[in-house]
Amino acid sequence: MNMDCICCIVIVVVACGAAFGAEMRLSGEFKDEALKRDVLAVCRDALGVYEKRIAAPPPLGPKPFVVRQASDGKPRADLRGLPNEYWVNITCLFTRQYCQIVYQVAHELGHHYIHPQRNNWLIESTATALSLRCLSEMGEKWKTNPPFGNWKPYAPHFPEYRENTIKGQLGEIGLKPDSDLKAWVRSELPTLVRERKVRRPEQHACAILIEDAFRRHPDAWGAVCQLGAATSADGYTDFAAWEKLVGPKERALVKDLAALFGPVFEAGKTAP
Length: 272
What we know:
Elements: H1 3-6, E1 10-14, E2 23-27, H2 33-53, E3 65-69, E4 76-78, E5 86-90, H3 98-114, H4 121-144, H5 157-171, H6 181-187, H7 189-194, H8 200-216, H9 239-245, H10 248-267
Parallel strand pairs: 2-3, 3-5
Antiparallel strand pairs: 1-2, 4-5
Helix pairs in contact: 2-3, 2-4, 3-4, 3-5, 4-5, 4-8, 5-8, 9-10
């Protein structure tokens, strides 16, 4: 760990109702105690969505989640925390940009729950879908049960941020939220994957479809904990293997995603 991290102030919280007693910390030197309290509450609620929907530890086992300011300006699930901690690097730790905090924290939590040492365009898209879903669920939760009672008026900002993000990302590739994204997956995605051109806008297009599957199968989020195990080091996701690894309640979700994205992998197995 870097010296600036060793000297940091660390705040510890145990997520309420956590199935495995998940611990979350903020790592950083906060000059404002109220800001420190509030940011921790927001990060804790994002983790709470995972705890509610998955109720199991990530594939590498129970470890504290440590949310840190990204020193390189890039959000990431930082492997340097392993094997003792799950580091979640974000770019907005010392701000009150709560929507952006949730969006970034939830995405990097997704990588840890999937497997921080596996990645491809589907995993990136799934982590994005999880972050979009967290924004929606926190928007609903904060209507009646925010961390602090006077935060209820903030609830609409989460779905608003989600919609603006989707609109902006899709617009970069000439799509709209009401575009036929399944047709786009069939016609455009195989070539983009083969040519290694799946970037953030394309990942968001895929994420919208994945998020819809999460919405239709709200008790099947646990399937993501086996996605990494079904993905090879060179980036190939084996949907048949993934289906065998999950439990009965998760299989319908995996089958839905296999129907959407399985042909894309078959069309370009060597392209992660």
